[in-house]
Amino acid sequence: MRTAIVFLSALALGVGGCSSEPERPEPLFVRVALVGATVGPAKFDGTRWDALTVLPNLVAGVTREAGGETGTAIIAAHMTGEVLAPFEKPDPAGWAELTGVRRPLTGCGSDTLTPAWSSAEWRHVRLSDATRLRVHLVDRDDIGSDEPIGDVDVHAGYLREALEKGIVVQVPVSDQTHGQLLFVGVSVAPEA
């Protein structure tokens, strides 16, 4: 009986039994970076990002005026596809904010569904349950007003996941943007 009590006490204290790996303490400060995003292939209503409606109507009119011949229609359809191809993807731009510091998200390329940034980085960040990374993206249009892509919040749980895994974590955000913005990529590393 006495041996059983000693054995059970040792197990309760973690002596002599299987011990779990000690928990790594969270670093005091971290570096957080927003490295990129994945934009949905179309707006929430199904329309293309930079589709121009004037050109297809113009080509259809030319085809009609040419007598609607099959050859002309094929050429017009091909021309429409070639002309519109560069206009189908957005030109993402915007900003990201963490701990009250806003960084611009520009220079990430145009006509892309996968923008990437190197300037959206914050140093000396203390993670807490209240830490949030806020991202605001628009489709920058030269010929009109900018169209919203989405505003999303990345909560501390995803930032801690990126820290623990030591990799870029693709955070799913489509539920915050009606599918217009699918993921944002975040990287978190301890500061020395």
Automatic annotation (TrEMBL):
Entry's SUPFAM superfamilies? C2 domain (Calcium/lipid-binding domain, CaLB)
Per its UniProt record, what InterPro entries does this chain match? C2_domain_sf
Protein's UniProt name: Uncharacterized protein
